[in-house]
Amino acid sequence: MPNAFIRKLNLFAPLSGPDTKLLEQICSKPLSINARQDLIQEGEAPDVVHLILDGFACRYKIVPEGTRSIMAYLLPGDMCDWHAFILREMDHSVATLSPCRVVEIPRAAVLEITDKYPAITRALWWIALVDEAVLREWIVNVSRRSATEAVTHLFCELLARLEAVGLRVENGFEFPVTQSELADTVGMSAVHANRVIQELRARKLIVLNPHGLQILDIEALKQLAGFRPNYLHLSIKGGREA
Fold this sequence. Notes:
Layout: H1 4-12, H2 17-26, E1 31-33, E2 38-40, E3 48-54, E4 57-62, E5 68-74, E6 93-96, E7 100-106, H3 107-116, H4 118-143, H5 147-164, E8 172-173, H6 179-186, H7 190-202, E9 206-209, E10 212-215, H8 218-225
Antiparallel strand pairs: 1-7, 2-6, 3-7, 4-5, 4-6, 8-10, 9-10
């Protein structure tokens, strides 16, 4: 399987042979983690950076009454905050949603990258900015978009992000997210999330089953969501010239 992390970094900065060799070495010994396992919990002191090579993970917080808010999906090629080790403690938790292959990158390796590998560092800066842009869109999802718009916008985003790292299969992708987890993502009840899914099925826009999500009419789904992929910044390789 192609390395989704290297492919993603190449979207934002051209990598040299030595850059790629270092990244291949970093990714050479991934851990296999079962579904729905915490990689790190809120309050813990981070000493490594987690990189998702395969599978779905998420960032989440538990509020005092016990309910959960999922604030990001981490897809193949995504880092769980490449500078997290500078924090005294985590302010959120990271957990797998499906079986994952995860790389633990030690602090020394991150510091080596920032000191000696400027192209990788530029790509990671760019990715950090895109992560912030995605979070802004998710805030709009839960604060201003309707339930149907929020869910369809999320589906369009995931399709674009997975396509960027070569993991879109025709018009669909694996989607190991339960309706309860989807509800925690878009800020609604599981019953309401189920209604939205049934509506999209009835309109023949999607097929959703244990094998994954298939989008039957991409343009109609984008129109329904009001989806504009500009915030993902995938159209211009490397961003602006230095």
